[in-house]
Amino acid sequence: MERLKVAMLGCGGLPNSCLMPSMMVIDEIDLVATCDLHQEAAGKAADRFRADRYYTDYQQMFTQEELDGVVIAAPPTVHTEAGIAALNHGLHVFTEKPPSMSAEGAKQFRDTARTHPELKVLMGTVQRHCPVNRIAKEIMMRPDFGQAIVYQARYLCPGPGMRMDWGLDRQSDADMFRFFLLDHIIHHLDLTRFFMGEIVAVSVMRSQTESEQYAAVINYRFANGITGSQTICQRSPTFENRTLIVGDGPSWVETHNWTKLSYSTPDLPVGQGGYSDGRIVQWDGGISYQEGVIRPGYREELTAWAQAILSDGECRANLEDGYREMCLIDAIIESAETGQVVEILEENGD
User: Fold this and answer.
1) Distance between CA atoms of residues 41 and 38, nearest Å
2) Domains delineated in the chain
3) Are strands 92-96 and 121-124 parallel, antiparallel or unpaired?
4) What is the DSSP letter of 12?
C-alpha cells in the first residue's frame, strides 16, 4: 500500500492525545516529521511517535522534507498562515478547526485552496466522522425514515477554559462566548449541516447570568424549510452531547455522547391513532475506543483525508464548509447581541 509522508505541525494536547496516536494506526500515513515553536515539545513528539526529524520552523520543514501533506493543529491564529504556506508548497492539508479566527481569514484560506484544486484539504470537525453519526445519517437516508421534520441537539461541556494563545481576552464576555463557539460549537454546526443541509437563518437567546456559565439556545432555519434548535452550555459537570432527528416516516434516530445510538419506528400503522412505545433499536460502541485517543472520529477523519488524497476523492468537511461555519458563528454572535433573527446571506457563505 502506498503511504503518505506526513508532518505534524503543532505538538500540544490534541495532537498528542488524539491526532498522532491515530496516525500510528492508519496504514496510509507515515508520520515523518514534527514541528512546534517549543523545541522540547517537537522533540518529545518525534521520539514518542517515531518521526524521523523535528523542527521549530514550519517553513524550514516544508522546504527540507519531501512531504505529501501536513496536519496542522497549532493555535488557530496560525492555521490560515501555515495552511496557505503548505498549499503554496504543494502539500495536502489537514487543518484542525477553526480554519481561522475570523470569517475573513477563513475565506482567504478557502480562496487559496481553490487555486490548488489538485490538493486535498480537510478541516477537522470530528463529529461528522464519528461512526455513530455516520450510522444515524445512513438511517436518515432510508425510505421508511421519511423527511426530517424535527432537529434537536444539546451540548453541555465542563469547559472550555480560555487558551492564552488564541489572542482573546479572558476578562471579556464577548471573547469568552466567541471562544466557546470557535473551540466547541463549530463541531456541532458542521454536524447540524451534515444531518440537515444548509442553515439559512439563526436566532439566539443567551441565559442572563452574572456567572461564567455561558448558556444559550440556538434556533435554526434550514434551506428545506425545516426548523431546529440546539442548547449549548459550558461549565457543566460532565459532557452531554445528544442529537435527535425525527422523520415523517414516522421514525426517529438519536445519538448520544459519540458512541450511543437509538432508532425507532412505529408498531402501529400511521393514522390509526392510539399510543405505542414502538420498537427501539439501540447500539452502543462502548467507552473504550482506542488507546491514547479520547473518543471516536479522529482516526476516521484522518483516514478519510488520506484516502481522498490517494483516490482523488472529495474531502468533507473542507474549507468551503469551514468558511460557511465561520459565517454562522458571526451570525450567532450577532443574533445573541441584537435579539434578532439573522439570515445567512449567499454572498457571505458562497
Assistant:
1) 5
2) 4-127+298-318 (3.40.50.720), 128-286+324-348 (3.30.360.10)
3) parallel
4) S
**Residues whose CB falls within 8 Å of the CB of residue 269, separated by 6 or more in sequence, listed in order:** none
Question: 245 pLDDT exceeds 80?
Answer: yes
- Comparing 42-51, 99-108, 281-290, 326-335, the range with the smallest average pLDDT is 281-290
Distance CA 347, CA 350 (A): 5
Are 51 and 25 within 8 A, CB to CB? Answer: no
pLDDT band at residue 239 using 50, 70 and 90 as cut-offs: confident
pLDDT of residue 348: 44
Using DSSP, state whether 77 is helix, strand or coil: helix
Query: Any residues with CB less than 8 A from the CB of 103 and at least 6 apart, and which?
Result: 323, 326, 327, 329, 330, 348
Count of CB atoms situated within 10 Å of the CB of 281: 11
* pLDDT one-digit tens code per residue, 25-56: 999 999 999 999 999 999 999 999 999 999 99
Quote the strand ranges of the chain, DSSP E. Answer: 4-9, 29-35, 53-55, 69-72, 92-96, 121-124, 148-157, 199-206, 215-222, 227-234, 240-247, 251-256, 260-265, 279-284, 342-343
93 CB-near residues (< 8 Å, 6+ apart): 69, 70, 72, 83, 86, 87, 113, 119, 120, 121, 122
Alpha helices in 197-317 (DSSP H): 298-311
CA 319 to chain centre: 12
pTM for this prediction = 0.93
